[in-house]
Amino acid sequence: MAKNTQGIITGLIAGFYDVQTKSRVVRTRARGVFRKNKLKPTVGDHVEIQIDDQGTSYLVKVLPRKNLIGRPALANVDHILLVISAVEPDFSLPLLDRFLTFFSWQNVAVSIYLSKSDLVNSEELADINENLAYYQKIGYEIYLSQEAVSKTLPVNIGFEQIWTLAGQSGAGKSTLINSLKEDLAQKTAAISTSLNRGKHTTRTVQLFKLGNGYLADTPGFSAIDLTPIKLNQLCDYFIEFKKASQNCKFRGCQHINEPKCEVKQLVAEGQIKKSRYENYLLMRKEIENGRLPEYLK
After folding, report:
1. 248 a known binding residue?
2. Subunit structure of this entry (predicted)?
3. How does residue 1 score in pLDDT terms, banded at 50, 70 and 90?
4. What is the value of pTM for the model shown?
5. Is 172 annotated as a binding-site member?
6. Pair (182, 235) in one structural domain
């Protein structure tokens, strides 16, 4: 008699799905109905599998998702650990703000890890840390060392939560995941110095047990497309703008030319970081134009 059980897809290999159930990992294939309905099971999906008397297993149902992000995709993400490098590739506030805005739009929480801090001089590092202190002030958790991540991350991941690494290629995601799970054999690669961007060293999405939940390693992003965001909603994805906008004169203030705008006032007073506001304006232009800026192409 066939038996049904539930689990989480932790990997996809040559058409087979690895599903972590309460007791073990089951390698299974999806029923043909998925192809017929144009539904593709994804790593991170909560699913139902059926195991017959001969021990043959089939994936028969995908439970409702709360989100689906990335390419290749990852489902049901609870938290992003955003890896931003101090150098190689160079630390970039515009890139940091792009990632934070994108994941805010996706309604996924973010923590920030600064990698390669040992490769910059003390003056440069002090400047980077001063910038990151602002992001900590507005609510983002900041990790300034690999040791800090290794110590606290397994504790912070809640029961069956899915955390994923994200960040520019070459920022050090595979190096970090190696340190978090020593039995992994993730490849790392040197930076292409001619382009100041990394080579993709992770080709697939896979979940690994960490703490009470899972950590995903995914291919790095070299650019994020913000153009699907609705222009009049962009300001809501800057968390300090959204908070300040409660004191703007006009509801729905876009913080451009409106009088008595609290956001512009706080920028002028230095309470909102000027670069955040400038990056917001650049993102507005990008969405209006419907295409990535030249420096990201």
Report:
1. yes
2. Monomer. Associates with 30S ribosomal subunit, binds 16S rRNA.
3. low
4. 0.85
5. yes
6. no
